[in-house]
Amino acid sequence: MTKWTTENLPELAGRTVVITGAGRGLGLITARELARAGARVVLGVRDVGKARTAVAELPGAFEVRPLDVADLASVRAFADSWSGDLDVLINNAGVMDIPAERTGDGLDRQTTTNYTGPFLLTNLLLDHVTDRVVHVTSQLHTQGKIDLADLDWRTRRYRGMAAYQASKLAVVLFSLELQRRLTARGSRVRSVLASPGIARTGLAAHSRSNVVNRFKFLTNAPEQGALSVLYAATEDVPGNAYVGPDGPGGLRGYPAIRRQGKAGLDEALAGRLWDRTADLVGAVGQPEFGCPQPG
Ligand SMILES: NC(=O)c1ccc[n+]([C@@H]2O[C@H](COP(=O)([O-])OP(=O)(O)OC[C@H]3O[C@@H](n4cnc5c(N)ncnc54)[C@H](OP(=O)(O)O)[C@@H]3O)[C@@H](O)[C@H]2O)c1
User: Fold this and answer.
1) pTM score
2) How far, in Å, CA of 70 to CA of 115, rounded?
């Protein structure tokens, strides 16, 4: 079977892509390749100066804008400042297994970075999106457990890796419910999932369980990890497709459409999670908010 690589990227001139957390790691590689293929790439990042330096010598059209996805005011400001079409939104920013910490909004930092902030960003930008939203999740979503009564780790004892797994399962369920709502309102916009497998980036820097380094022999180069994101962002895949490496366990290899874990296909849970998350970000009662419940 043909192995999909960046050589297979289509011509992307005239297309605009927003990618979060793209100043380094998989996000930067994804941004670089999309721009090389002709897209206008907008990087939403915490450190604007660092990201500008990172893309300064790269060929293509880049724009760098401030965005801290764990700060709801920053998310709202980014979305408010957007005008015009946005072909592809890639929710890439993420942290893994970080110590317990509350954001300025009083929310759990890991859950907010990986899921709640991107949920808000996506909903606020959705009316601009013309093609698709790509959610970067992880194969570790299959280990995740959603506690709707304590989504934001207030009453349970916080465990960094469990919070990561839960946040990535929440992302998978978000994609499911978003696609359901988009389809119900007759939208052609797609919600697509990308799982990079295991790639050697800075993601495991805080990880006490250090899962990436323990399984180093199984890891991908970062360029290989970014392929799933690039494929999910550009190939003609069905709504709510789960794109991940084609090797054993979805950890290594070339991008292919795979199947998300069973919990990630629970429609009832996805609907309840959406409502609970909307409560958390204080979006309830805003009629213009994102993709409303059909009918
Ligand atoms: N690497 C893997 O094996 C692997 C596997 C599965 C899934 N993933 C997912 O892939 C995505 C990218 O991870 P990576 O491997 O490239 O890790 P990375 O090298 O640590 O990069 C993470 C990126 O996210 C940004 N970020 C973190 N918090 C942010 C915030 N609050 N607002 C905006 N940006 C923020 C970081 O920006 P700063 O420079 O400001 O910190 C950085 O650019 C993540 O969603 C991760 O969960 C990675």
Assistant:
1) 0.96
2) 9
Cβ(243) to ligand 1 under 6 A? no
Q: What is the pLDDT of residues 258-287, one digit of tens each?
A: 999 999 999 999 999 999 999 999 865 455
Pick the residue whose CA is nearest to atom 20 on ligand 1.
203
Q: Where are the alpha helices (DSSP H) in 17-132?
A: 25-36, 48-55, 72-80, 109-111, 117-125
Instruction: Report how far residue 239's alpha carbon sits from residue 262's, in angstroms, rounded to the nearest whole number.
Output: 17
Q: Name the phi and psi angles at 224, rounded to 5.
A: -70, -40
**Among protein residues, the one whose CA lies closest to atom 7 of ligand 1:** 138
Rounded to 5 degrees, φ, ψ at 213 are -70, -35
Token readout for 71 is 């700060």
Q: Confirm whether 242 is a catalytic residue.
A: no
All domains of the chain, ordered by start, with CATH?
9-280 (3.40.50.720)
Active-site residue identified among 115, 158, 164, 242: 164
CA 293 to chain centre: 22
Q: Is 244 in the pocket of ligand 1 (CB under 6 A)?
A: no
Task: Count CB-CB contacts under 10 A for residue 104.
Answer: 12
Q: What are the tens digits of pLDDT across the range 58-77?
A: 999 999 999 999 999 999 99
Q: Are 146 and 171 in contact (CB under 8 A)?
A: no
Q: Which residues contact 47 (CB under 8 A, 6 or more apart)?
A: 23
The contacts of residue 103 (CB under 8 Å, 6+ apart) are 70, 71, 109, 112
CA angle 192, 162, 232 (to 5 degrees): 15
Residue labelled with tokens 């696609």:
179
d(CA 268, CA 54): 42
